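Final report, Chapter 2: Outcomes

The project's central promise was a pipeline that accepts a single protein chain and returns its three-dimensional structure in a standardized token representation, suitable for archiving and comparison. That pipeline is now operational. To close this chapter, we reproduce one record exactly as it appears in the project archive, with the input sequence first and the structure output second.
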Amino acid sequence: SSSASSSTTTTTITSTTSTSTSTTTSPPSEIGPTGNYEYFSHDNLHFGTRSYHRKDLRSGDGGKAKEEQEQFVFSINFHLEELGPMSLSVDEKYAVRLVTFVSPTRTRSNDNGSSNSKSTPRQRILIRNIATGKDHEVKVPNTYKCAPSPSSTNNGMRRQLSNVEFGPILDDHDDSRHTLFYTECDELGRPHAVFACIFDGTSNTNTDVEMIFQDSSASNFVDVQRTKGCEYVAIHSTSKMSNEIRLVGRDCIHIMDGDGGDGDDSDIHMQKIKIHPKLVRKRQHGIQYFVDCGSNAADEGNTNDLIIMAHEIRDKGQGYEYSEIAAVAGASDHPLIGQELSLFEDSVENLPQGKSFGRPLLSKDESSLHYFIENMELFATHVVVFERSFVDGVQRLKAIDRKSGEAVIIPFDYIGHDRCLQVSAAGNIHYQSSIFTFIVESPIEHPITMHYDFFSRKLSKPAHKLSGSSRYRYNRTLVDSDDGAKVPLTTMFDENFDGVNRPIILIGYGAYGENQNLSYEPALRPLVDRGFMISFCHGRGGRELGQQWHEDGCRLRKINGVNDYLACAEYFSSKEFSAATNCKFGQKKEALTSNRPFVVAKAFSAGGIVVGASLNKSPQLFQCASLTNCFLDVMGSMSNSELHLTEHEWDEFGNPQEKEACLSITNYCPLMNIQKQTYPPILLNGAVDDENVPFRHSLVFGKKIRSHSE
């Protein structure tokens, strides 16, 4: 994970899993790249399937039944395959998806000809002709040559492919030739190379698949993503401390004949594709930037078709000097990039960039000093900016007119408890749309879809508010950590519940500069209805309060996130908490072991570091704990170079080969700090197919806890 998210430009068909036991439409629907079709999905939890459909917006229903209006795209059986990357072609004639079968389907032969008893997960790139329903498979070279995974015990093999994306159509006069890109992993499972080919709609006329980019550094992860205007594909090479982006447009693509010379348009299957990506700007340590591109044809003469977000990252607490960035001539208020993201615009014609990132798109005002940018969404006429408060991490949306520069706050506060909600973009694939669609939700309430019109400035509000608005009570409180840092704590509960002794679930994460996930979680709502309080510690290591909040909780300062979590657990015993909630949160009398409330520690993945370390330091604060696929052996993982994330993760946790980093990891590593003391009951869940966090972490942690717990 990067310290900041890239642009939310997406070309995938978005859907949300239905919570109904019958087949229902999963919100939200989404308009495709041309604006001609609306896409949506149906989930059937009984059969474990999801089907994707679309509706033609260019014609009325003509009195047709709902089933007749829908055109089937494809379906997925979750018992057989994973929901992987997918992409629509620019003209929406085709949909490509990366299929990874869940069950082993193929045996691998050893070099000596013998058969390996472990099967491999089969991966395929399938292109669906939406009109005919026919699939074409892209012939991927060496699909099953990947080396065995040291951490996998289920299938013995890592995945080789990680992403797939349709690029621009090759010719204006001939819309049959589509560029197709996919990323491949190295022997450790790290995405390291980009391949490309041309697809013209038949099963045997692809150009040869060619590798167009490769990054050999173990710190860098490679990905591809089509830009919003559909004229470029961006190739990302990203580490936690820097990145580099290249753009591939039609002017970068050349068709060569067998001799290496320029070929004509015939016999495409005998030709080769040659691509020379265009560098946006050279990699610099301590600098990260993210780009999106519009469309010259759609922007009505606006040559600033390149939007850039950029910021600096401080290495081990030291500021990275970048004062040499030149201000734009005549613009004395040109902002130098700092820790937080700044927004610029430029032209693709000016690439590669020099010192300047371009013209500032968002002017600084007094309100901006209290908010920072975390993401953007690009449209032909506007840019929508996602912001957060430096004080408590509350989100805000701002629409910027690309011509006038006027910025307008998009309201969504009518819901009543917007300070504790999660707001996210709902696809917005259609670049020329005048409507911005976004989702508002909470962990215990179903998501609702809202639409904002850029020109009328009206917000289309749903007929109903969030389902539990009248029952559920939300609070966001600032809790004092041990060093005085103000830690946001989000709590939610049913204030109409008659019980007097409510258990509290405290969820922690604090890693990778990722915010706590406050999206709807069906498993949490029944607990709230039974009297539980659900709470989220937004501790250091996340990015709820900005980039500095992340840097204060990673590498040598990782222990800060642990102390923040413990401070939130202690807060539940305070008079301030009782006064704020006006409820009693304690243990049942027959189960009382102390005067403390019944607190359940809960974490998943990297959150296991914070929660596991907290259980070691103050086990008396918790009555039980639930750790799901948790990262618990930090020292062992950061010392094992055979794992595909190790070198990439050194920027987050530190390299134990360095003395200071080794001492820091030793101080908080959950597995290393298990002591002879009384631990609460702990539920450990591991997954046999999780390559990022092998289930070995849960096994060794559980075994050691059992041997030490008194």
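Archive annotation: The first helix runs from residue 66 to 69.
This record, like all others produced under the grant, will remain available to the consortium after the project formally closes.
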